[in-house]
Design brief:
- It contains 20 helices and 27 strands.
- It is α/β, with parallel strands linked by helices.
- The chain folds into 3 domains: 232 residues, ANL, N-terminal domain (Rossmann fold), CATH 3.40.50; 213 residues, ANL, N-terminal domain (Rossmann fold, 3-Layer(aba) Sandwich), CATH 3.40.50; 134 residues, GMP Synthetase, Chain A, domain 3, CATH 3.30.300.
- It has a 5-stranded parallel sheet, with helices on both faces.
- A hairpin with a 2-residue loop joins strand 21 and strand 22.
- Helix 11 crosses helix 12.
- The termini are far apart.
- 42% of the residues are buried.
């Protein structure tokens, strides 16, 4: 049965499921305990949410209070979120990877009164800074064997989640009527969540997202992808502290009655896929790139017949895909070849994902076109989406029946996306779901958005809010894009744009994606602002370097930041030269340096959502960059 109209706020969604879609005893979540996947029912979830809500009311928490969570994905996250949502509080989720300084800033800026803590490492961070957060009254670890150093005298009380549940259970009779009353009185325009965007520059800003923002975004997304239903199982591994996973997995499941299985870790993701056999997974491009690289390496590294069969199958899959995408019918010979390719190669790769995938949703960054095409050749659907924290987040997503690789899909229903000239501020085009035409194209400019998904604003920052939401209610994304074959295509970020010394605009992302086609490159950071030509800092996959050059872990552990090895340089240079031919001459890198280890969040070089911080990286490695430009024997100067 379709959900009824009583789905206007986040806490009403699960109750609608048990009234109209599933019974209370149906499984909602799955979590690995020891060697078994433990089912958790809707009834258990709602009961635990009620007990936590009762406890929170008993300590004086009231509607509008901000309650923080710093925890990996787990049922406990859901219990706590459902609890605070139904008493009108605001979920303030914090990335577990943030520094103590950033965590303290968020707790103080939001005025959070409680914090749910996921493990002992995170608890140590919280107890270190808790006394510098005067509004914090409770620290709630989800585990019971915590220890606080005697040297730390906490001003906030500390109580583990099991004790919270026990106390709440004894108090539920006293508070249940109040909980129900508050839940029914919550307005769709009330703030549901406060999510701090790390940003690539500046201090974090708290994005205020209302219940309407989040619920309407789910409804529009499901209109675009109507094949998601109560029989689906999501495997959740991206952080719920990020709006992408929260919407694409958690909120959609709460609305449509899907199951959620929580992956144990990124390292165990492949094992968990085989066990759970998910039908939908939300992921980021980097994961898909790794699957792509490993699949090709495993099939071709030893050469011989196995390699030949794999390459033949890929070519067959590509031919079959292109015929289907052109809305034509494959001939009998191609159908037969594709059936054989599927049996020999494609089915075995799909089986590693559990064998039931309808599709994977890719978001958070641009997916390289060749990676999307690779999965398409295997008949694995990758739906690309686009949005920002400030847009709840989805504003465009690929339709299941129509793939345009290198784009992020069609505009969602009930939204407007415009392209604005970055210099004249003239609006080039306004596109909606209804105005879609498969042959429509336009010039590029800044992507601006208007509609139900736009945030209420930045918490306590009216000036910053006014800078991004104009008088006509257009939200200015800072992203450059255009429409191509009716779909939205992202070119780059305005702040990423480089202007070379000749005044030529260079957008790094498409250039970096070209070089990322090489399996020898894990990360590439383009440099070239106010320079005569582009260069790059490149990071190679550690495993690939070790296998190719017989390197030990000690090679990566010493203090030398960059690799100074002619053989490695020339090995990488061969791929750089080949891929450079796909770019305009002014876009080609003329030299590069190889960094031993990845950029890190700890060094302030990467945001929690894995975006590189341009200014900080250029500052941190200024000397090496300048030395690279001073070299007279640049390998790639033409």
């Amino acid at each position: 049965m379709e959900p009824d109209s009583n789905t206007s706020t986040i806490p009403k969604l699960l109750r609608n499921v048990v009234q109209n879609i599933h019974t209370q005893s149906a499984t909602f979540m799955l979590t690995k305990v020891a060697n078994n996947w433990q089912p958790i029912t809707y009834q258990q979830t709602l009961d635990n949410a009620d007990y936590i809500a009762a406890y929170l009311l008993s300590i004086g928490i009231k509607k509008g209070d901000r309650l923080a969570l710093i925890i990996e994905n787990s049922p406990e996250y859901v219990y706590y979120d459902q609890a605070l949502q139904q008493i009108g509080c605001i979920n303030t989720s914090i990335y577990p990877t943030l520094s103590e300084t950033d965590i303290a800033y968020i707790l103080n800026d939001s005025g959070s009164k409680t914090i749910l803590v996921g493990n002992s490492f995170l608890l140590k961070k919280i107890t270190t800074i808790a006394n510098n957060c005067p509004q914090l009254i409770r620290i709630i670890p989800i585990f019971d064997d915590y220890k606080i150093p005697e040297s730390i005298q906490l001003n906030a009380g500390i109580i583990n989640l099991q004790e919270v549940l026990q106390q709440g259970k004894t108090q539920i009779t006293q508070h249940l009527a109040t909980i129900n009353q508050i839940r029914e009185a919550i307005s769709p325009l009330d703030i549901s969540s406060l999510i701090y965007t790390s940003g690539t520059t500046g201090i974090p800003k708290g994005v205020m997202l209302t219940h309407a923002n989040l619920v309407e975004n789910v409804k529009s997304s499901l209109k675009q992808i109507p094949v998601i239903d109560k029989n689906d199982t999501f495997l959740s591994f991206l952080p719920l502290s990020h709006i992408f996973e929260r919407t694409a997995t958690y909120h959609i499941s709460c609305y449509a009655g899907c199951k959620i299985a929580f992956a144990q870790s990124l390292e165990l993701l492949a094992k968990n896929m085989a066990e759970i056999k998910p039908t939908v997974i939300a992921c980021v491009p980097r994961l898909l790139e790794r699957i792509h690289d490993k699949a090709i390496k495993a099939a071709t590294s030893k050469g011989g017949v196995k390699k030949q069969i794999f390459l033949w199958a890929l070519a067959t899959g590509e031919a079959y895909r292109k015929v289907k995408e052109n809305e034509k019918t494959p001939n009998m010979a191609l159908n037969l070849k594709n059936t054989i390719a599927n049996k020999l190669v494609f089915s075995k790769i799909r089986e590693k994902t559990g064998g039931r995938l309808k599709f994977m949703i890719s978001g958070g960054a641009a997916l390289p076109k060749n990676v999307g095409e690779f999965f398409g050749n295997l008949n694995i659907k990758i739906l690309e989406g686009y949005g920002l924290t400030e847009t709840s987040p989805v504003v465009a997503v690929t339709e299941l029946h129509r793939q345009v690789y290198g784009t992020v899909g069609r505009v969602l229903p009930n939204l407007e996306i415009a392209i604005q000239n970055t210099e004249t501020k003239e609006i080039i085009t306004i596109q909606t779901h209804q105005s879609f035409h498969k042959n429509f194209e336009c010039a590029e400019g800044e992507i601006i958005i208007r509609g139900h998904c736009i945030m209420k604003g930045y918490w306590n920052k009216p000036t910053e809010t006014a800078e991004v939401i104009d008088s006509q209610n257009w939200f200015h994304t800072g992203d450059i894009g255009r429409f191509y074959e009716g779909n939205l295509q992202i070119t780059d970020r305005i702040k990423n744009m480089l202007v070379n010394s000749f005044g030529k605009n260079i957008y790094p992302t498409p250039i970096e994606n070209t070089y990322l086609k090489s399996p020898k490159i894990e990360t590439i950071f383009l440099i070239g602002d106010k320079r005569e030509h582009p260069t790059a800092i490149i990071i190679c996959p550690k495993e690939t370097l070790q296998e190719t050059f017989g390197l030990q872990n000690t090679f990566f552990d010493n203090d030398q930041i960059f690799i100074n090895n002619t053989a490695i340089y020339q090995w990488l240079a061969s791929d750089i030269k080949k891929l450079s031919t796909q770019l305009a001459k002014f876009e080609r890198i003329k030299n590069f340096i190889i960094k031993k280890n990845p950029f890190t969040i700890e060094n302030g070089e990467v945001t929690p959502s894995l975006k590189l911080k341009r200014k900080i990286i250029e500052t941190n490695y200024a000397q090496a960059i300048n030395e690279m430009y001073q070299q007279n024997d640049n390998t790639f100067i033409e």
